[in-house]
Amino acid sequence: MCGRYASTLSGEELGRYFHADEIADIELRPSWNIAPTTTVPIVVEKRDDRARLVTTARWSLVPPFAESLTLRYPTFNARSETVTEKPTFRGSVGHQRAILPADAYFEWLTEGKVKTPHAVTSPTGELAFAALYSWWRADPTSDWVLTATILTMAAPEPIAWLHDRTPVVLAPEDWDWWLNRETTADQSFVDDAVARSRPVAGALIVHEVAPLVGNGPHLLGPV
Q1: Which partner from 64, 116, 156, 161 sits 20 to 30 angstroms from 91, CA to CA?
Q2: 33-49 pLDDT, tens per residue?
């Protein structure tokens, strides 16, 4: 799973890295300790012209039918194996796929009662988490809120010692394929994303870090 991550690039930097056609008028502040329900950067494809857009979303997906923005269960991650079975997520699989950019994500190695934080990074650059998004609003007079979740999968052997789950991480050559709104995705499409992600996830780099206290570059420093 992924319950904390870091994302520090500006909108302009993310736009260049992800070859975006448009950057929303947003303020992105760097954060090394992003928690669920935080506003985070997101890359999506616009419906009308397939333009790639960098904008922001609330990290924890809320489906349109939810009565409240705050749900009784966590939705910041979605299991890839069952995502098309869950009412919360299945409406987004078809055409509402996204990328959540990250510098790193954090995972805790559990040994007995001791949990030791580790940072997981890419040897080549930004991490591109496969994600889903959904729009929600309280009533017809309220503003729409964009919300998102990170897809997870079984961790491949090189990093499974840390935790049995990991985000589905996309290689650059798969970004367009994943975001393409002209493709109606189903479970086999999600399964294909997982298969494409395995070698990417297997190459990730892990190092121990100090307890996640506060917010700053020190959180990624190796211990």
Answers
A1: 156
A2: 999 999 999 999 998 88
- Separation in Å, CA 142 to CA 80, 118, 138: 31, 40, 6
Contact of 18 with 51, CB cutoff 8 Å: no
Element (H, E) at 191: helix 187-202
5-220 CATH fold:
hypothetical protein yedk fold (3.90.1680)
Q: In sequence order, what DSSP letters do the residues of 148-182 get, joined into one string? A: EEEEEEEPPHHHHTT-SEEE-B--GGGHHHHH-TT
Q: Detail the DSSP E strand segments found in the chain.
A: 5-7, 22-23, 31-34, 39-45, 52-59, 77-79, 97-102, 104-111, 114-121, 127-136, 145-154, 165-167, 205-208
d(CA 114, CA 128): 30
Specify the DSSP element, H or E, that contains 15: helix 11-17
Token readout for 84 is 């098309």
The dihedral built from the CA positions of residue 185, 190, 195 and 196, taken in this order, carries a sign that is positive
Instruction: Please answer whether residues 190 and 84 qualify as being in contact, where contact means their C-beta atoms are separated by less than 8 angstroms.
Output: yes
193: enclosing H helix or E strand: helix 187-202
pLDDT tens per residue across span 199-214: 999 999 999 999 999 9
DSSP state of 217: G
Amino acid at 139: D
Q: Are 150 and 167 in contact (CB under 8 A)?
A: yes
Q: Which pTM was predicted? A: 0.96
